[in-house]
Amino acid sequence: MNRRNILLGGVAVFGFSAWNMTSGSFFDASRLPGAANAQTADAEVDTSGIVEMVIGNPDSTVEIIEYASFTCPHCATFHAGPFKQLKKEYIDTGKIKFVYREVYFDRFGLWASLVARCGGQAKFFGIADMIYAGQSQWTRAGEPAAIVEELRKIGRLAGMDNDKLEACLQDGEKAQALVAWFQKNSEADDIDSTPSFVINGKKYSNMSYDDMKKIIDEALES
Asked: Where is the Thioredoxin domain (predicted)?
């Protein structure tokens, strides 16, 4: 699978294949306007520098990996409600280890990821909350340049200056590595929808908080 360099709104990103929830198949996002010629093959992409975003107890016997997209409305709903309960009852109390992995349906989700990761692991989850809270606004801002500016505003609210944000948004190598990392993870865990959860190695689709709580409690007791 090939990458294609895209430069839109002053932001360098790379085309990639992503899951199309409507058709239930993968589409080639490199066909988005502005795509250039294929440049780098998957095998050449180094993903070793991508940091896992983790909160909670790293030594817990229960690990939850969430696969989510910053442009996914169901993911925003999860983070507005169930995630807050999960954080209060299980993450902040040190009962579980929680890992967040981005899924990229489109370039906008990738740009959001670059902004969220710009503050490092310490700020990631706080910025992610802001991105999800404002999802209906920034995703509908209009042209790509307007969407990027809305994401910059979120970054500035999180305490980052313009120079830092531009450096993160212009980091094409990081963007390419994130896409390759996403593809590797999603294929390994057979992810075909968002949000999806891998709890102690077993995949689950989106569920109510009560159902998730039951699974977690059973895992803690085993």
From this structure: 32-221
Tokens of 141: 């801002």
Q: Is 77 exposed, middle or buried (0-12, 13-18, 19+ CB in 10 A)?
A: middle
Q: Domain segments of the chain: what residues? A: 2-221
pLDDT at position 14, please? 35
Gyration radius of the chain over CA positions: 17
Fold held by 2-221: Glutaredoxin (3.40.30)
For 40, which DSSP code? E
- 2 contacts 39 by C-beta, under 8 angstroms: yes
Cα 5 off chain centre by: 20
Q: Is 20:71 a contact under the CB 8 Å cutoff?
A: no
Q: Give average pLDDT by consecutive 10-residue segment, the chain, 222 residues.
A: 31 36 35 30 78 97 98 96 97 98 93 96 96 97 93 96 94 92 94 96 96 98 91
Task: Determine contact, residues 92/130, Cβ cutoff 8 Å.
Answer: no
pTM of the model: 0.82
